[in-house]
Amino acid sequence: MIHVRGLKKNYGPVQAVKGIDFTVLGNAFFALLGPNGAGKSTTIEIIATLLAPASGTVEVDGHTLGVEDDAIRDTLGVVFQYSTLDPVLSVYENLKIRAAFYGLTGDDYAARLKALDDRIQFSHYADQPVRTLSGGQRRKADIARALLHSPRILILDEPTTGLDPKSRKEIWSLILALKKQTDMTIFLTTHYMEEVLDADHVIIMNEGEIVAEDSAENLRLTYANDTLKVIPRDGLSAKLESESIAYRTVNRTLHIPLDNPFQGLDYLNRFREDIETFEIIKASMDDVFLNITGRKLEGNHDH
Ligand code: ADP
């Protein structure tokens, strides 16, 4: 659905995107993960025809960026990080104006509005001016507007950033439901690790470059180990060392990286006598990011 080749963009001396290649397949749930400043928004804005690349090619559903931009805009529904609804107008007024722009009026518009409300549930506040809405309500209205023209691809730039935890959950469930109930391709950017766990395909971006790409599960398997944590009895470290099994000591516990969870079972059976108690910790996507880039994803505070 989307092919990006050799994409570069700089803002003066700042190289925001340094020549990236990726493909988003049809019907996929595709996540672009990276910390603030990685180049995610820049990439999205280029695909959405809002920003011209310095070089490289982008094709969206067979349409070439820079040549068939109108066709690309018809294919895409885009929800930007910051709401682009008119704050003075009500949700209905915002939607109506956008619908008219697509030639969607009368009964067709009413039917579309009803279908969107069945999915997204915004009608109970849709008469209010947008400026009076909560962050979550506004985000839903943004999503409804992006879907008015039944796009084949929905692009969401950090859709849950800046929302309170309850609204984040709600918006996330809505996105998962859209994924399940429609055959739209969903392409989102995020700096929250937990959000990429649901994606079919993940690209990790850092400082304008793609640093890893795979399914969430494969990234976890490749770049992060499950860990066997044990509280040892006296002889354990010596035994591990004599068998060249790597471990780290953290306070009273030993952390033993595992190639797979069954290796943990093997160790537990072999060293049972030397272990007081244990747990197996599943590797997280945070470990993946740390292992690939050498830095933590500052994912848990909003900006
Ligand atoms: P992300 O979406 O991953 O946070 P951005 O694409 O917004 O990353 O930014 C990538 C880099 O480009 C950052 O270093 C950012 O400071 C810079 N940048 C983004 N927009 C502009 C702009 N309009 N002018 C100058 N620099 C910019």
Features:
303 residues, Rossmann fold, Alpha-Beta Plaits, 2 domains, 6-stranded mixed sheet, 4-stranded antiparallel sheet, elongated, binds adenosine-5'-diphosphate
Brief write-up:
By secondary structure, the protein is α/β, with parallel strands linked by helices.
Largest sheet: spatial strand order: 6-7-8-3-9-10
* Average of the residue pLDDT scores: 92
Instruction: Give, in order, the helices and strands.
Output: EEEHEEHEHHHEHEHEEHEHEEHEH
- What share of residues are in beta strands? 25-35%
Residue runs with pLDDT of under 50 for 5 or more positions? none
Q: Number of DSSP strands? A: 14
- Helix percent reads 25-40%
Radius of gyration: 23 Å
Number of helices: 11
How would you characterize the largest beta sheet? 6 strands, mixed
What is the SS-derived class? Answer: alpha/beta
CATH topology of the largest domain: Rossmann fold
How would you describe the overall organization of this protein?
By secondary structure, the protein is α/β, with parallel strands linked by helices. It folds into 2 domains: 2-220, P-loop containing nucleotide triphosphate hydrolases (Rossmann fold, 3-Layer(aba) Sandwich), CATH 3.40.50; 225-282, Alpha-Beta Plaits. Helix content is 36%, strand content 28%. It is built from 11 helices and 14 strands. It has helices at residues 40-47, 69-75, 91-101, 106-120, 135-147, 165-181, 193-196, 216-223, 236-242, 261-270, 285-293; strands at 2-11, 14-24, 29-33, 55-60, 63-64, 76-79, 153-157, 185-190, 201-206, 209-214, 226-232, 248-250, 253-258, 275-281. A hairpin with a 2-residue loop joins strand 1 and strand 2. Helix 3 packs parallel to helix 5 (135-147). The longest helix has 17 residues, at 165-181. The model has no long low-confidence stretch (mean pLDDT 92). Bound molecules: adenosine-5'-diphosphate (ADP). Adenosine-5'-diphosphate binds at residues 11, 14, 16, 34, 36-42. Adenosine-5'-diphosphate binds next to strand 2 and helix 1.
